[in-house]
Amino acid sequence: MPSVSATVAIPLPVPVVYRYLQERYDREAHRTTSMATKGYVPTITTVETVQGRRLCFRVKGRDPLLRVFYGGWQWEYDLQAVGDRATQVTIRYCWSWVMSLLSAWAIRHQACNEIVETAMALDALAWDESPNKPLQQSGPA
Questions:
Q1: 93 CB burial (10 A radius; 0-12, 13-18, 19+)
Q2: Other C-beta atoms within 10 Å of 60: how many?
Q3: Contact 122, 22 (CB under 8 A)
Q4: Taking the CB of residue 36, how many other CB atoms lie within 10 A of it?
Q5: For the whole model, what pTM was predicted?
Q6: What's the CATH number of domain 3-126, 3.40.190.10, 3.40.50.2300, 3.90.1720.10, 3.30.530.20?
Q7: In what order do the strands lie in the sheet with 68-81?
Q8: How far apart are CA 39 and CA 27, in angstroms?
Q9: 84 three-state secondary structure
Q10: Rounded to an integer, what distance in angstroms lies between the CA atom of residue 109 and that of residue 83?
Q11: What pLDDT score does 99 carry?
């Protein structure tokens, strides 16, 4: 089964990161954006949970034109504490060969986008809006 993964450090304790990842697909934002962009809300199945350490989900692939299900995705989050207030998260996406063929091999790029979006969501979750924290600049002001 093809896969891609990345590891990111988040400045939040493991319980906060774990809870967010565990509940993110049950939130209204997920339902609303799924309906708006896909026209349906995919059934996401929890495959494995190890409290505070690992989560694994699966969803069937869907052809939007034929409205048939085939193959599927699986994604995993492995969490490890880094001190008291940080979590290292390894995000891994796997997909079936059927999805690779039907996507003309573009499925890996979609998986990479999913990983980046998850890392950005975790980063946003950790964002400190304290008025004393200066904004980071990426170039000359």
A1: buried
A2: 16
A3: no
A4: 8
A5: 0.82
A6: 3.30.530.20
A7: 3-10, 87-95, 68-81, 54-63, 45-50
A8: 17
A9: coil
A10: 33
A11: 76
Query: What local confidence, expressed as pLDDT, does residue 137 receive?
Result: 44
CA dihedral 99, 105, 107, 112 (to 10 degrees): 150
Degrees, nearest 5: CA angle 64-75-44: 55
For residue 141, the model assigns a pLDDT of 46
The answer to whether 40 touches 32, Cβ cutoff 8 Å, is no
pLDDT recorded at residue 43: 86
Look at residue 55 in the predicted model and tell me its pLDDT.
98
* pLDDT given for residue 63 in this prediction: 67
Give me the residues of the chain with pLDDT under 70, please.
Answer: 62-67, 69, 128-141
Radius of gyration, alpha carbons of the chain: 17
What pLDDT does residue 98 have? 78
Q: Which of 28, 92, 34, 93 is nearest to 62 (CA)?
A: 34
- Report the first-to-last Cα separation within the chain, whole angstroms: 47
Alpha-carbon dihedral angle through residues 107, 111, 116, 117, given to the nearest 10 degrees: 100
